[in-house]
Amino acid sequence: MIWKILFALILAQGQANPTGAIRGQIIIPSVNAFDRIQVVVQRSDGPIVARIFSDTLGHFEVRNLANGNYDILVDVDGYEPVRQQVGVSSGGYFNAASVNITLREKEKTAVVKPDGNPAEDTVDITELSRKYPKKAIQDYEKAKAELRNKNEAKALELLLSAIKVAPDFYDAHNTLGSIYQKQSQFQEAEAEFTRARELNPRAPEPLVNLGSLYIDEAAASAAQGPASVGKILDKALDILEASLKMKRSPMAYYFLGTAYYRSSFYDEAETNFKHALEMDSRFPAGRLMLANTYIRQRMWQNALEHLDIYLADNPKASDREQIQETRARVAQRIK
């Protein structure tokens, strides 16, 4: 699981003060409130100038710093180390904007013993990633940046390059499969997710991705008739059930509920959408699909209840007008 860190740095100096200061806050959700976090301050071009500990809320402050650039180092056990450069200027604010840094939890994957039983020990997947050639990692990082800029064509090119250099690059295969899925290239997406599954058989993500893919493929195959659609949805049901045996997640329950819904098994769909909402009560897609399930079953009062919750939780939703129209039609059924 990946955890986020908000690392807001404020550089404050007075006009009359010849030295500067760095103030900041570190927030890591999984760190207990009483844990103090060590912060190391180092001149970017020289030695360490301070080693301090944050308070119990993650706040820290370093004063009496000469003008220049400094590196703030935070290394919390179980997380990727963070190094953030900031500038200090005693003459006023310099680089005063807040800085958001993601602190990535070191991913773990189970090791399988020769007898087939999961090992007690785990290995850090980042250690395994060091076996990848530098070019493959660079191409993968560039691909992620292109995806953030919604340039799927360039991202696809970079991921193919990464996989050519490192055929066992798990994350690259998984990401490539997601691009193919968006482009409705179902066979190519299935091949990439399957390869990711082979490379990391203990990870549930490729299975959830495959389940989502089969649901999309079933929808695109409607013209081939119910029998063909049913076979594809059966694959989705099987693969999503397998993913939940590895790890429960709102997304896996959501897709499993969707597969049951598309198969007209409404009781099973309702159960899984409820599981998704139990894990994440503000899961908009799960809320709407549960409402749709009740509409299909003509359970108007239940549908109305969940449509109201959706509208309350999502006041700026792009589909708000459409949902309000649906709510009005459902309310009419109750009268």
Task: Describe the structure concisely for a colleague.
The chain is α+β, with helices and mostly antiparallel strands. The protein has twelve helices and ten strands. β6 and β7 form a beta hairpin.
Give the topology, please.
Elements: E1 5-11, E2 20-27, E3 38-43, E4 48-53, E5 59-65, E6 68-74, E7 82-88, E8 100-101, E9 108-112, E10 118-124, H1 125-129, H2 134-148, H3 152-165, H4 170-182, H5 186-199, H6 205-220, H7 226-246, H8 250-262, H9 266-279, H10 284-296, H11 300-313, H12 320-334
Antiparallel strand pairs: 1-2, 1-8, 2-5, 3-4, 3-6, 6-7, 9-10
**Mean pLDDT across residues:** 80
- What's the alpha carbon Rg, rounded to whole Å? 25 Å
CATH topology heading of the domain at 5-101: Immunoglobulin-like
State the helix count: 12
Question: Which strands sit side by side, in order, in the main sheet?
Answer: 5-2-1-8
SSE series: EEEEEEEEEEHHHHHHHHHHHH
**CATH superfamily name of the domain at 5-101?**
Immunoglobulins
Coarse shape: globular
**CATH architecture tag of the domain at 5-101:** Sandwich
Low-confidence stretches: 1-18, 30-34, 92-101, 108-130
> What is the percentage of strand-forming residues?
15-25%
Structural class: alpha+beta
Helix content: 40-55%
DSSP, total strands: 10
